[in-house]
Every structure is written in structure tokens, then in C-alpha cells.
Amino acid sequence: NGHENAYENILVETRERVGIITLNRPRALNALDAATLREVVSASTALDADPGIGAIVLTGSEKAFAAGADIKEMAGRSAPEMYLADWFAGWDAFTRVRTPVVAAVSGYALGGGCELAMMCDLLIAADTARFGQPEINLGVIPGMGGSQRLARAVGKAKAMDMVLTGRHIDAVEAERAGLVSRVVPAADLLQEALDVAGTIAAKSLPSVLAAKEAVDTAFETTLAQGVHLERRLFHALFATEDQKEGMAAFTQKREPRFTHR
Ligand code: CO8
Fold first, then answer.
1. Does 70 sit in the ligand 1 pocket, CB within 6 Å?
2. Contact yes or no for 202/54 (Cβ under 8 A)
3. What ipTM was assigned to the predicted interfaces of this complex?
4. CA dist., res. 67 & res. 110, Å (int)
5. Which of 65, 109, 179, 227 has the fewest Cβ atoms within 10 Å of its own Cβ atom?
6. What pTM did the predictor assign?
7. Which keywords accompany this UniProt record (predicted)?
8. Which atom of ligand 1 is found nearest the CA of 72?
């Protein structure tokens, strides 16, 4: 189906309606350099445009989801160079993917790795996962949205703790703090993520996209505006055959057969 293109730093495959992107730069613990950014954006955008894909899984290796932005690539650059290149702005395209993305995190998710995981819609962690924003140890701060998304995900107290000290947290602490939705044994991580993605991909796609848009809006606007948008999206879904089918199936006590999936 055309998604298994020759990328250098990622692997892409599809299983039924689920696309899988695997960060694959083992010699640098999946550090996110500019080439990897381009490939993740290209692969996720292509999967997003494919109506045969209903959910995407983003994962790394057992040892590292990603150990950060590529420090060696940035180390020698000047402020004007960083500013003129608008370093990291390319990741914004990844956050515009409308198809739900499930991050499956094993091992290190540090710096840009933690930030990339937080750009996904749902985080599932292996019990080996370690999350951190260690940029403070490099004389900088998070640059891929970490200070903002971590504060929204875990609140000010723990975000300040992590961003100011560079301390890593383990999977248990990450789940307790609300950063991840589930923790599973490392050996079960990919299967769990594929099950979650498969469950989402089996729903009616318009309702899935609307649901993601509605929840994302909660982090961008006031309560009244968010509730208003939700209600309008809810009304609009009554224009789909799948709303008729879903509600008919409920009253007839059978499984729905959705058309838009
Ligand atoms: N960038 C580039 N290369 C990396 C990175 C990285 N973020 N992380 C690991 N690598 C490389 C190592 O340099 C090493 O390469 P080599 O074999 O050529 O020396 C290889 O991956 C394996 O790593 P280690 O030998 O260090 O493996 P360990 O198991 O001993 O340690 C750690 C694993 C603890 C994850 C360790 O690699 C580490 O601390 N990595 C860096 C973590 C970090 O600080 N991440 C934040 C990066 S900064 C960021 O994401 C936001 C932008 C901030 C701007 C910074 C500007 C300078």
C-alpha cells in the first residue's frame, strides 16, 4: 500500500488499518536529527492522508524511544543559525496529523524524545520507560514544546521539578502523574499499543477525528468555547450514516457495521 518506503532512520509498516512508525537510529539511541524529523513528518503525513488508516503507532527500540534531539547536530550552532532555521519548527507538522497517534514508549524518552511522545495523543509505557527533560544539564531548556505540554500533562509542580532539575521519572511515576495512560510489561508493549490502535481504527473515522479535535481543543481555548465546539461537532456527526448505524445497532442489540472506516 505504498507506505513501506525506503527511509533511513525509521521503519514504516501497516497492519490492517494501523500504521506503525518505528524510530530506528540505534547508534544514537534514536536521537532526533533533522533527517529523522523529515522522515517522521513525511511518513505520518502520508499515513494521515490514507483513508485506509485509522490509527498510527509511534515507537522506538527496547532501549530507547528517543534519547532526545540530536545534541551533536546542534552543539556548534549559533543563535542566528538556530533562529533562521527555526530549529524544531518542523515538528509542528506532526502535531497537525488528524489520525490518532499512540506512542509506545520503552526505555529512554528524554528531551526531544519525551517531547515527541507528548505530541502523540495517547502514551503507553513499558515498565522500563524513563521520561525526562534533561536540557537544563546542557545549558538550555526544552525546545520541542516540553515546558508547555509537560505542564499541561502533569501540572506545574512536577513539570517544574523535571524541567529545573533534569530528573528522570520512571513509568510508575509517569502513570501516577498522568503523563501516560497505561503501563505494561516491556514484552507486551507493542501488542498493547497495536490493540489500542486497532480498537480506535475500528470506530467510525469521522467520530474519531472529531473526538481528537474536541479533546485537543480543551488545551487551546476557554471552557465555554470548548464546550461550544464539542456541541457543534456532536451535531454535525448526525449527518453521518455511521451515527444512524451506531444508534440502530444499539437499539437492535447488535454490533455496529460502520461505513466510514
Ligand atoms: N544526541 C546525540 N547523540 C546521542 C544522544 C542525543 N540526544 N543520546 C545518545 N546519543 C548517542 C551517544 O552519544 C552515543 O554515541 P557514541 O557511541 O557515538 O558515543 C550513543 O548514542 C549511545 O549513547 P550512550 O553511550 O550515552 O548510552 P548510555 O546507555 O551510556 O546512556 C543516556 C544513555 C542516559 C540516554 C545518554 O545517552 C544520555 O544522557 N543522552 C542524552 C540525553 C539528553 O540530554 N537528551 C536531551 C537532548 S536535548 C533536547 O532534546 C532538546 C534540545 C536542547 C538543545 C541542546 C543544545 C546543545
1. yes
2. yes
3. 0.91
4. 5
5. 227
6. 0.96
7. Lyase
8. 2
Phi and psi dihedrals of 9, rounded to 5?
-115, 0
E strands in 97-181: 101-105, 108-110, 122-126, 130-132, 169-170
Residue 103 in grid coordinates? 506512542
Which pLDDT does position 1 carry in this prediction?
A: 63
Residue among 57, 104, 88, 216 at smallest CA distance from 152: 216
Q: Is 7 in the pocket of ligand 1 (CB under 6 A)?
A: no
Half-sphere exposure of 144 (CA within 13 A, CB side): 28
Mean pLDDT over all residues of the chain?
Answer: 97
- Ligand 1 mean position to 37 CA, how many Å? 17
Q: Any bridge partners for residue 69, and if so which?
A: 32
Ligand 1 near 111 CB (within 6 A): yes
Q: For residue 128, what is the DSSP state?
A: T
Shortest-distance Cα residue to atom 20 of ligand 1: 28
Task: Please report the beta strands in the chain, taking only residues with DSSP state E, as ranges in sequence order.
Answer: 10-15, 18-23, 55-59, 64-66, 101-105, 108-110, 122-126, 130-132, 169-170, 182-184
Determine the pLDDT at residue 5.
76
- The pick from 25, 29, 106 for probing ligand 1's pocket by mutation, whose C-beta has the most ligand atoms within 8 angstroms, reads 29
CA distance 199 to 224: 31
C-alpha cell at 155: 501540572
pLDDT digits (tens, 9 = 90+) for 134-180: 999 999 999 999 999 999 999 999 999 999 999 999 999 999 999 99
